[in-house]
Amino acid sequence: MTETETRNPNHSNQQNGDAVVAETELSTRDDVFDDSYKAKEGPKPPMRLVWRNVILMILLHSGALYGLMLVPSTSALTLAWTALCFLLSALGITAGAHRLWSHKSYKASTPLRVFLALANSMAFQNDIYEWARDHRVHHKYSETDADPHNAVRGFFFAHIGWLLVRKHPEVIEKGQKLELSDLKADKIVMFQRKYYKLSVVLLCFLVPMLVPWYFWGESLWVGYFIPGLLRYALVLNATWLVNSAAHMWGNRPYDKNINPSENRFVAFSAIGEGFHNYHHTFPFDYATSEFGLKLNITTAFIDLMCYLGLAKDCKRVSREVILSRVQRTGDGSHKTR
């Protein structure tokens, strides 16, 4: 695994000697922050509720709360299976849709890509193509009307509210202009997109429910509410915390001029995705953190895949580039660990 120097994509005033781009011209990347973007003048379009989503989210979280009440009477095997399903679901987002397909921060073999696509369906957070497209829009137009979960609109909107209303027209317009040929050319991504609904029914709901029933006699009722709904709701909220809490609370040792922050609670709950000031400063780094495996299960997983020969070419930011950026734009909270 070679260390790759890269310059920060979030600001146009990067000093010439600060970094070198190794593999990709930043000017053509669709996850590079566009500081030339200006929101359209005039009145904001009214928010239109998507009542189907509102009702489904109420039902999901009600079911998850009921599942939580069942936990004390649930077998240890079922709880262990629930934890495993949580981990698999989360990896489908963090190692898959996020670090592999959105940012192309490492390369994965076909078996690993198939595994991550299946895990992504278990997570049920939109198919890989749509997830990666929206995430690239988020990076390119962060904290603007074109950001799908613009944190400037408040915690609730950034956390879950953005899924309960129609997308802002700017999100749709900017998303349609992105170059997504890499995703369209990916047969695994497009296969998953084609059969996404079926894969979600099987992997997000039926498999988590049926495995404990078949192998150790757990009731289907408990299987549905704990490894099914409760686990699903927990993975959703862990992911949403990256959009909300990690864009609001924490220190900014790498770039004090942007909202994303270092949030250890989010890093723990989202298996490594809470080092958000670093990630938005250096989005191509496969580890999304300067400090390797610390509170970063996803990075440990990718490293394991590299050791097994299933992943390679992990992009990393050099120590010199990090320290240069810390000194120039950090908030002074950076500590060498």
Automatic annotation (TrEMBL):
Transmembrane segments: 49-69, 75-97, 195-215, 221-242
EC number(s) from the headed UniProt entry: 1.14.19.1
Biological process according to GO: monounsaturated fatty acid biosynthetic process; response to fatty acid; unsaturated fatty acid biosynthetic process
Topology class, membrane: Multi-pass membrane protein
Domain Fatty acid desaturase, residue spans: 81-283
Enzyme class per UniProt: oxidoreductase
Recorded catalytic activity of this chain's protein: octadecanoyl-CoA + 2 Fe(II)-[cytochrome b5] + O2 + 2 H(+) = (9Z)-octadecenoyl-CoA + 2 Fe(III)-[cytochrome b5] + 2 H2O
Location of the region described as Disordered in the Swiss-Prot/TrEMBL record: 1-21
Location, primary (coarse class): endoplasmic reticulum
Cellular component terms (Gene Ontology): endoplasmic reticulum membrane
Keywords from the named record: Endoplasmic reticulum, Fatty acid biosynthesis, Fatty acid metabolism, Iron, Lipid biosynthesis, Lipid metabolism, Membrane, Metal-binding, Oxidoreductase, Transmembrane, Transmembrane helix
Highest taxon of the lineage: Eukaryota
Family to which this protein belongs: Belongs to the fatty acid desaturase type 1 family.
Record comment regarding domains: The histidine box domains are involved in binding the catalytic metal ions.
Protein name, as recorded: stearoyl-CoA 9-desaturase
Organism, as annotated: Esox lucius (Northern pike)
